[in-house]
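Protocol step 4 of 6.
Sequence for TusE/DsrC/DsvC family sulfur relay protein (Actinomadura luzonensis) entered exactly as in the expression construct, tag removed. Do not edit the line below.
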Amino acid sequence: MATTTYAGRPVTLDDEGFFTDPGQWSEDMIPELAASAGLDRLTDRHREVIAFVRARYTAQGAAPAVRALSKSSGVPVKELYQLFPKGPAKTAARIAGVPKPRGCI
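Step 5 output, structure tokens:
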């Protein structure tokens, strides 16, 4: 585990860079988290996906893998990969401050 700082607050991350305590996350961390994931500019569509992942984690205790993310959010898989080229489910989960989705390698 590692500790880093986003939006001036320390957060604990696992070895793959996912929050170990989603309660440490806040929306003002999104720009820094996105930049660290290689996304310089977020659109409203990015933010919709990130909010969906966060809400899904809050409701079900797990972030969705890419197919479930597409199916339940209504965002086509192709668009998810355009928004998050390095892997939509994992990147959105990192930015949303939730643990790694189950089933992602």
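Step 6, annotate. The radius of gyration is 12 Å.
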